[in-house]
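User: Here's a structure from my thesis project, written as structure tokens. My advisor, Dr. K., wants to see whether a designed sequence matches the one we expressed. Can you design one independently, without my sequence as a hint?
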């Protein structure tokens, strides 16, 4: 389930930056002792991208790759996108989804799905799948649909 704002923010297109007036980032300058070593990484961020565009771009690149897990019970993978999330020791880079339902939060029973961070509530959300059978004669389906339920108690 995707929650959408009733009045999503609109952005006004701005003028394109002049390539001669854009300053280069000091991170790529070898004179300051720092170098941009991971410019081809899906996590390298172009400053012109908004946070939402960056996340969508990285997610699309990751989703385009096939799952490479030999465990037949894995039906999905939640992959960390931010550097901070990737450094979490308990989950590592991926959370493997194997049960029909997983709860994510600070105080959930399964330690693989615990996220200890102030912005995460005790029982933050639940991701689950349900079998869906359609009787559409042109497109018969006997698969699963995946849902995300916000279970935070601090929302109205």
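Assistant: Designed independently from the structure alone:
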């Amino acid at each position: 389930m995707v929650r959408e704002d009733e009045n999503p923010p609109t952005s006004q297109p701005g003028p394109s930056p002049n390539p001669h007036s854009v300053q280069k980032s000091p991170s790529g300058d070898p004179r300051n002792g720092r170098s941009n070593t991971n410019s081809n990484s899906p996590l390298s961020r172009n400053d012109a991208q908004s946070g939402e565009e960056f996340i969508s771009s990285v997610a699309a690149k990751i989703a385009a790759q096939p799952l490479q897990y030999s465990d037949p019970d894995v039906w999905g993978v939640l992959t960390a996108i931010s550097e901070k999330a990737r450094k979490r020791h308990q989950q590592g880079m991926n959370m493997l989804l194997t049960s029909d339902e997983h709860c994510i939060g600070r105080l959930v029973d399964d330690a693989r799905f615990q996220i200890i961070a102030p912005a995460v509530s005790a029982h933050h959300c639940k991701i689950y799948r349900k079998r869906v059978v359609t009787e559409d004669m042109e497109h018969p389906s006997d698969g699963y649909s995946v849902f995300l339920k916000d279970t935070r108690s601090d929302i109205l």
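When you compare it with your expressed construct, this may help: The chain has two domains: 38-68, 71-156.
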